[in-house]
């Protein structure tokens, strides 16, 4: 399955901060066929550093970030469902963000890009869904930040969502999650090449962005998975303790992931998206999470992983218990995995089984109404 | 239970292979909202969804069973049944089912009261420790009873509370529960007389 990213342009988008962004581009991909009554559409939400290329093989030969879950016969079965994935607002992979040209100045927005929220991201996706002629999504699903967006969809557009599948996610960030993000942001801003966000056309703050990514990758793994993958193994050419060399395998891995990230991600997008995640609180403006989540009327499947210490199961349970307390339709399972937060991208077998069964049941219920 | 009524029983029994499930499958009203505590792989709930068009919820602690249940399309919550009951609002369900688990729960009375708080009706199926084989085993061996129904050694038995049909009747009286249905089973057959002596499994439908 080869795929290509398409772009839709909307005249404007009013943001939570009061600013109106105009125009706004959305990059998206889609897989499978929309059925006659347009009832089989599923919106996939990518995580922090993802993009619209969720499945299939792109023009560059690279598989999508959730290709093991989306495709013919897979968890999100494209023989049955029409699957859409779009790049988030303030991203850097085709959707309007800080690296986009500000039409008022003819230069990239940089730090003049307005602050965005998870709510803004979802509002833009809603425009896309309406543009595609879909009245009601069969499901909205994603891991990590993708799960936050799925939750936001469920409460912001209850009539347009039949089910939501937040995976390894939360209704609001903990102090620890905000703290790790802050370390990443500080690494970027401490890089002189960042230049208060105006680096386009000159040198990227590559060192800062790469360090930020290294920290991120540590939080996505687990002690077990790192011990298994790297242990204390040293590089073959290691000539002893040094600061200009790479001594341990784990260092080599992190540096590699850091430098790879710089090639495909924008430092300002990093800052804007992490802020949006940190500020997200599904219960904001309500006396409790339960009172807030009560707006959602759809079915829920909530999944978490035993070794995920970045988005621990208690955060998923908080969502689940709020839903149970309001007698909403919710299924919950904590999957056993050693892969930490990365598990939602790796542990596909059991996830796919559950997602497949859950979606099939949801489609049946939708068809009955 | 009249002879004409259990039209569905052979089918549910065939699918589920458990006579208490068969009875529960029969007595639940179509279209109702049902919570099954300790639902396992949600065989009963899935059957009820297909055949009685119920809205199903389950609670199960074993992650492997929860996975199968969710893959079946049933909304099951992975958690401890005694603690999880607190999370549901009052009178949220038409029926709350507890099948073959009461004797394993640490605080059975608390569980039963909670079932009647979150549900309009509770359906409880439990093995009858008053069955004559249990009594006989205990009497002749002088040791913790072991029968086909209770095959465990005392040290690895999941059962922590041993109750009989008469015990349950007496508790229902004390708690002023209304017993709406009582069905006694020996294998797949119903027991008409001397249930405390002859029933292997008892199924009660109660309400406050």
Summarize the structure.
Chain A has 369 residues and is an alpha/beta fold. Chain A has helices spanning 118-131, 145-156, 175-190, 206-220, 223-229, 249-264, 267-279, 289-293, 313-325, 343-346, 348-368, and strands at 6-10, 13-14, 20-21, 24-31, 41-45, 70-71, 76-77, 82-86, 101-102, 107-108, 139-143, 163-167, 299-305, 330-335. Chain A is built from 11 helices and 14 strands.
Can you walk through the features of this model?
The complex is a heterodimer of chains A (369) and B (208). Chain A is α/β, with parallel strands linked by helices and 369 residues long. Chain A has eleven helices and 14 strands. Chain A has two domains: 255 residues, Rossmann fold, CATH 3.40.50.1820; 99 residues, Rna Polymerase Sigma Factor, Chain: A. In chain A, helix 2 links the parallel strand 11 and strand 12. Chain A starts with 5 loop residues before the first strand and ends with a helix. Chain B is of the alpha/beta class and 208 residues long. Chain B has nine helices and eight strands. Chain B has an eight-stranded mixed β-sheet, with helices on both faces. Chain B is globular, with a radius of gyration of 17 Å. The N terminus of chain B is likely disordered. The chains are: A alpha/beta (369), B alpha/beta (208).
Keywords:
heterodimer, A: 369 residues, alpha/beta, Rossmann fold, Rna Polymerase Sigma Factor, Chain: A, 2 domains, eight-stranded mixed sheet, two-stranded antiparallel sheet, globular, B: 208 residues, 9 helices, 36% helix, 24% strand, disordered N terminus
